[in-house]
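REQUEST ID: PR-0412
SUBMITTED BY: lab tech R.K.
PRIORITY: routine
TASK: structure prediction, single protein chain
INPUT:
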Amino acid sequence: MNWYHEPVTIFLKNNRVFLIILTALCLAIVLSAIQILGYQRQKKEIAILSSKLQAVVRGDEAGHLLLEPDDPYYELARAINGVQSMQRDISKDFTLQQRGYLSLLEYLTIGVLVLDQDQKIYLSNHAMSDLMGRELNVKGQLFVKEVRTYELSRLIEKTFETHQDQHHEIKIDATSKNVDAHVVYVPVSARHFLVMALLYDITELKEIERMQMDFVGNVSHELKTPITAITGFTETLLQGAMDDKQTREEFLKIVYQESLKLGELVEDILSLARIDSKPQLNLTSLKIYEFIEDILTTFQPELEKKAIKVALQIPVTAEVNVDKNKLRHVVNNLIQNGIKYNQAGGQLWINVQISQKDWNLSIKDNGYGIAKDEQERIFERFYRVDTSRSRQNGGTGLGLAVVQEYVKAMSGTIKVRSQVGVGSTFTVTFPLELKDDLG
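STATUS: complete
OUTPUT:
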């Protein structure tokens, strides 16, 4: 029996070894397959994560990564999702801020031109285009091709050369505007910088300065004339002319007339100063007929001297809401001119009409009249239509300028209609409802 059992035993032992080897081989194959599948899955997930990070860097809009909580890359995916959300929020904030800055830049009245370090236009605003007289919103163009004012180009070039801010008042060739130009060096980083040109329009300020200088010059000239006359005739009297009665009386009359002119000029100048310094209104209800009639009594001697007749065309019961003192100055001046520049035996018509929203006062004469080309200038300070006649009648050239300022102070308008040799009509119009606070 032993001979039979030995082969069986050997066979079983051999089969067991074979099964063990086969099982081990199968396990190895399965493990390898699992590892290969796991590697491929990890490679795929890494590719997805890498693609996602690249999208975040580019700023592309994409959905978040969704992985199972037990996935080894779950926390990394969450971190990438967080970075994407943060990047999206930062991008939105930046976009909103950029839009706000650009909008603010467009609404600035200061001209702004920004250049990069290659001397190319980075951005500019509408005010800069207006000042330069041409569209400058040409990003990427060299500034020398677009800025066609030598003085400004020189300031910009000097800033690029020296890296120092430049400042100068210049005149823009294309628009003839005076500007206060600041060219600023703006370092952005160790290797990068910008140059910003800021232009402040000072054309109006320059015009005001010119007008002030003209005004001072005109005042000095106008004051010099009566002062010279008073000084000269007084000196002549003191040197012995006063012993001659006829000469003394003649010279004293001239001195008196010149002193009246001097006083009138000073009063007109003070009136302009009061208008500028105190624009507030002191409103009161006024019966316009009685008001005009009262003013006319003060001119009665002058009216009788030139035999001028006055016709009032004013509703007796009409009432208006005005600043009494300012209106008195306006009416006084217009009536005075109607007498001064009227002929002997002339007429003066004073008319008041009231409508639903406003009322107007017109003073008409049949005197010398004003040429059409001079009618727009009569409200300028120190302007005289006929210098010799104005001086003869004691005009200062400021009366109508003062009238216009008072009319404006009461939110009104003044117009003139005139014809040489026929006469002039001055019409002032005021709103029925005035506010005592002009601000």
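NOTES: The longest strand covers residues 178-187.
REVIEWED BY: pending
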